[in-house]
Amino acid sequence: MPNYLGRAAGGNAAPTVTITGVPPKINTSTFSIKVTFTFSENVTGFRADDLTISGGVVGVLGITTINQSTYQVDIFPLNSDLTLTVKANSAIGSDGITTGPASDVSKTAIWDVTAPTVMITGVPTKISSTADFTATFTFSEAVTDFVTGDVTVTGGTKSGFTGNGATYTLDVTPAGDSDVTVTVAKDAATDGINTGPSTAVSATSTWDAAPTVNITGVPARINSTTALPVTFTFSESVTDFVTGDVTATGGTKSSFSGSGSSYSLDVTPDGGSDVTVTVAANAATDGFSTGPASAVSATATWDAAVPTVAITGVPARINSTTAFPVTFTFSESVTGFVTGDVTVTGGTKNNFSGNGATYSLEVTPDGGSDVTVTLAANAATDGLNTGPASAVSATATWDAAAPTVDITGVPARINSTTAFPVTFTFSESVTGFVTGDVTVTGG
User: Is beta strand 99-100 parallel, antiparallel or unpaired with respect to 91-92?
Assistant: First the structure.
């Protein structure tokens, strides 16, 4: 409507207008927006062509009169920012003379179909303690409705959630011994029209304990000065591990090499003493943690003594074919000892058993002859030395003859009460002979 009157000579104020119903943001052109124009007084002459629209079109019904001061129109957005302007002097006031509004009045709805995104920072790549860290959530735009419940923490606990607009923070305490993952849920926050992020977003802090090390190539026992090839295998790739991080007592070091998680070192025993190889605490680093947490050692015991054996259970004498149990007791735990390492003359073997340092065998005499049980030389090993150094035997003598006795010292005649000494001489050594076994008549 052309401005042919302007402000009346009487000085009446121009009508003003308030535009409502235009949201700050829009993200669809499927539905219309109902816009209301509320004038400060009753007006006339307000028509659709008094509007300037950018990014939208007026619905087919045009402007609808609600009452003389209130008008409505349906606007269909066109996939872009929508700006709706009421032209200056587009309506005539209640006095029929004054036009208004005095200048253009506009409202804009921003076209926004992009969901807010979020970036999580402050979560360290690796952790090795339960010390708190602060996670920061930075959205691509200001958002609302983002609360601590929208964040999940595995491997730790949450506390101290704060923030507004586009930036929020959360304190995280690792549980220890496990990775910590901080996750913002899908659609956790809104920019007023779109929710985001469109998918869950996570950041993980890997639990990185101190590197550990395993020492191999150090035998349990040694008996020579032959060099030992020692290998140090770390639980992960490390650096800064050098020959000076290894000590060798009872031996000398040479030929250190390696990289990553595996290193090797030759250790030559001095001879005559144990050899202990030790990796110092915190000898190497994975770039974050140092390890091992404490010194790690492996010892080779000097053992030049061969195993010895004692045979028990073989009686000194026998006079029957009753089986007797024979026990072989070694000076240390051995292996490789089998029934074939034992020979029996004058009898037969059966029921061999045992392990470690003790073994047993039943021996049945043939009868009428001595029984000899013999353990062969070098029949068993302690893992390094074989023994015994020479064959070991025990013999049971066959003895079926009863002992006889000869009594001397008894005179053929006596004529007094004078005591006389009597001697009992057995055909062999005996036991169990006591005074009660002798009877004397007449004295």
Answer: antiparallel
pTM: 0.58
Closest CA to 321 of 372, 367, 369, 373: 367
Nearest-angstrom CA–CA distance, 145 and 151: 12
Token output for 401 = 């003859």
Q: List the structure tokens of 366.
A: 């043939």
Helix-strand-coil split of the chain, %, nearest 5: 5, 50, 50
**CA–CA distance from 180 to each of 63, 126, 152, 175 (Å)?**
59, 9, 10, 8
List, for residues 383-414, the tens digit of each pLDDT value: 899 999 999 999 999 998 889 999 998 998 99
- Residue 175: count other Cβ atoms within 10 Å of its Cβ: 14
Q: Over the range 200-223, which residues count as b (16 or more CB within 10 Å of their CB) and which as e?
A: ebebbbebbebbebebebbbeebb
Q: How many H-runs (helices) and E-runs (strands) does the chain carry?
A: 0, 42
Distant-in-sequence, close-in-space partners of 360: CB < 8 Å, separation ≥ 6: 313, 325, 326, 327, 328, 351, 352, 353, 354
pLDDT in tens, 2-34: 444 444 434 579 999 999 999 999 988 778 899
